[in-house]
Amino acid sequence: MSLGATLVADGCRFEVWAPLAHEVRLVLDGADREVSMEPGERGYWRAEVAGVRSGDRYWFRLDGERPLPDPASRHQPLGVHGPSAAVDPAGFEWSCDRWRGLPLQDCVYYELHVGTFTGGGTLDGVVGQLDRLAEVGITMIELMPVNAFPGRRNWGYDGVFPFAVQDSYGGPAALARLVDEAHRRGIGVTLDVVHNHIGPEGGVLHRFGPYFTDRYATPWGAALNFSEAGSDEVRRYFIESATQWVTDYRVDGLRLDAVHAIVDPTARPFLEELVSAVRDVAHSVDREVLVIAESADNDPRLVRAPDQGGIGCDAVWNDDFHHSLRVALTGETAGYYVDYQGASADLAQAYEHGFVLRGGHSEHRGRRHGRPATGVDPRRLVVFALNHDQVGNRPQGRRLVHHLDPSPRRLAAAAVLLSPFTPLLFMGEEYGDPAPFPFFVDHSDPELLEAVRRGRSEEFAGFAWDVDIPDPAAESTFASAVLRPELREEEGFHAELHQLYHRLLQLRRDRPALRGVAGWPAVTHDDGLITLRYGSGPAELVVLLNFSDRPRDLTTDAPNVLLRTDAADRSELAPWSAAVVEQAQTRTSTVADRGPSSSPSG
Fold first, then answer.
1. pLDDT digits over 470-496, tens only?
2. Is 243 helix (H, G, I), strand (E, B) or coil?
3. Is 326 exposed, middle or buried (CB count within 10 Å of its CB: 0-12, 13-18, 19+)?
C-alpha cells in the first residue's frame, strides 16, 4: 500500500504511520463521518472507505485529539493548516507518451521559482513561457520546491508536506499539465526536493512519529531521523514522496537540496537508498530520470557508483566554480569568498580539476576541505554564474547585472556555457533581468517572522555588507522579484545578451566537445587569460576567456573564429571578453595595453 490516500475503483484506501498512537480515526471532512482505522505492523494504521472521490477532504484524529492533516497529503486546498484532499493521478491528462527523458550531456538546466517567474505566479504561467525557453536553447527546467508551504509566498524551502503540490501554484493537476507541455516541446522537468529539514510552520510529522532526532541539528531546525529507532519508516516516507514525482507526475529528475546537511552514519546511507529507489522506479517506467545533489562538501563520492563506494547521483552542484568566477569578475573576497583570492587562477583550477578546494586548507572553515574529483566525468559537475542561493542570499537579492558592466556580464555567460560541465541558468539570466531575488516568506506567526528577520541579519554578518535588508514578510519584497521577460525584446543590452545566450547554447549543442563529450579540456592560465583546449589537430577547439584589463593577442594560423563576446579587431581579444576558435594551431600572448583599461565593476 502507498502512504496517504489511494483512490481505488469503489472508494479510497488510507494508510498512515502513527506508532505512538493508541487509536487513529479517519475524519471525512464535510461528511460528518469518522472511521476507525485498523492497526498493523510497525505502527501503521489502515482503512478502506467506499464512496470517496478525488478532491474529497479528510483528516486523521490521533487518540481523540483535534484532527490533523495527512503527513502524506497530496493536496492541501485550504493551506497547510487545513484538511488534506484525495488526488487521483490516473485523472491527469497526458498527450506526450513518447517522451523518455534526457541524457545528462544534453541538459541545460534553467532554475526558476514558480511564484515570481510570471506575474500570475502559477504553474500554468510557466507553461506560457516554455516556447521562448525552448527557442533560446533550454532543455531542462528546474523548479524550486513546489511542495506545500505556509501562506502564498515562499522560496519553497519551508515546505511541510513533501507529497503535496502548493495550491496557490495551481495544485497537482497544474504540475502535470506543465510537465506534459514541457515534454511536448522537448524540455524536461526537474523538481527541487528537500530532505534535510521541514519548515517551521504547519508541520505535523512530530505529532505522528519519531520523524526527527535531537542527536543532530541543521541550520534550519531539527534534523530528520534517518539513522535512529524508527528511521526505516522515516526513510520510506521520504523515498515514497520522491518517487511519486516520477510515477505520478512524470518528472525527469530530482535536485536534492543541501545533502551535506543530512547526517546519516549508517552503513547504507539514506541518500544511497533514495537514489537506488529512483533508479528502480525510472527503470520500471522506461524513462531517464536524473538525480542531482546540492552539496558544499566537494565530495566526488556523491557521483560515484555504490560499488565504488559512492552514492550514485548523476551530478552535483559545484559551488567552487561559482565562487571563483564571482571573485574573478568582482574582486569580492568577504565571507566564504575568502578562499578564492586567486580569482581567475582559481577559476582555471576549477576548469582543470572540477573543485578548487581538493583537500587543502579553507580559511573560511578553518580546516582542510574537499577531495580531488579524480576520474569524475566533467558533465557530473553542475556549474552556474547565478542560482537562487547566490542571488537571494545577498542582503538585497541583487544579481550580477547590478554589479557588472556589459562586457564582464557577457564573459560570465561564456565562462559557464563554454565549459565542459553541465550548465545551469537562473531565471531571467538569459536577458539580464534586473529583478532582484530577495528572501521572502508568508508566515502567520509574528514571533516566527521576527526570528526570520533576525536570522537574515546574522547570516550576513560575516560579509560586512552595510545595506538595508528587505523585510522578508513584506509583499513588496516578493513583488520586486517578479520577472519582466518582455525586456529581452528591447533594443540594447537585454536583447543583445539574449542573442548571445542563444548563440552560446547553439554552439554548445552543435559542438559535442563543449558538452563534455571529449572529457576534460587542457587548461592554461596566463595573467588573467584562461585557455581551454578541446581535442587536438585540425578539429581542436579553443576557448579564450580574458579576465584582465588588457587586450590579448589573437594572432593565429588560419583561425576560424566561431564566436566572440566583444566587437574588437579580429587580431585581439578585448578585456573581459571571450572567444571560441577552431584551428590546427593556436598561439596566444599578452600584448601591451591599447587604450584605457576596462573595469569589471559597474
1. 899 999 999 999 999 999 998 899 999
2. helix
3. buried
- In contact, 104 and 315? CB cutoff 8 Å: yes
Could you say which of 181, 294, 442, 572 is catalytic?
294
DSSP label at residue 55: T
CA distance 224 to 308: 27
- Name the band, by pLDDT with cuts 50, 70 and 90, for residue 592: very low
CA dihedral for 232, 237, 238, 242, sign (positive or negative): positive
Catalytic residue list contains 158: no
Q: Beta strands 109-112 and 422-426: pairing type?
A: parallel
For residue 545, report the phi and psi dihedrals to the nearest 5 degrees.
Answer: -125, 110
Q: Are 266 and 227 in contact (CB under 8 A)?
A: yes
What pTM does this model have? 0.94
Nearest partner of 255 among 301, 305, 206, 189, judged by Cα: 189
Sheet holding 560-564, edge to edge: 522-526, 529-534, 541-546, 577-582, 560-564
Q: Cα(150)–Cα(157) distance, rounded to whole angstroms? A: 11
Question: Which listed residue (48, 257, 339, 442) is catalytic?
Answer: 257
Residue 217 makes CB contacts below 8 A (sequence gap 6+) with 223
**Residue 181 cell numbers, joined:** 507541455
Catalogue the long-range contacts made by 559-562 (C-beta closer than 8 Å, 24 or more residues apart): 559/583, 559/586, 562/507, 562/511
Question: pLDDT tens, 433-479?
Answer: 999 999 999 998 888 888 888 877 777 666 666 678 889 999 999 99
How far does Cα 87 stand from its chain's mean position? 26
Element (H, E) at 127: helix 123-127
Tell me the C-alpha distance between 101 and 510, whole Å: 20
CB-based contacts of 201: which residues, under 8 Å, 6+ apart? 80, 150, 158, 160, 443, 444, 445, 448
Give yes or no: 294 in active site.
yes
Count CA atoms within 13 Å of residue 360 on its CB side.
9
Rg, C-alpha atoms of the chain: 25
Q: Per-residue pLDDT tens for 93-149?
A: 999 999 999 999 999 999 999 999 999 999 999 999 999 999 999 999 999 999 999
**Among 43, 46, 27, 45, which Cα is nearest to 84's?**
27
- ∠ CA 78-79-81, nearest 5°, is 100
How many Å separate Cα 68 from the centre of its chain?
Answer: 31
* Beta strand segments in 274-372, E: 290-293, 315-317, 361-362, 367-368
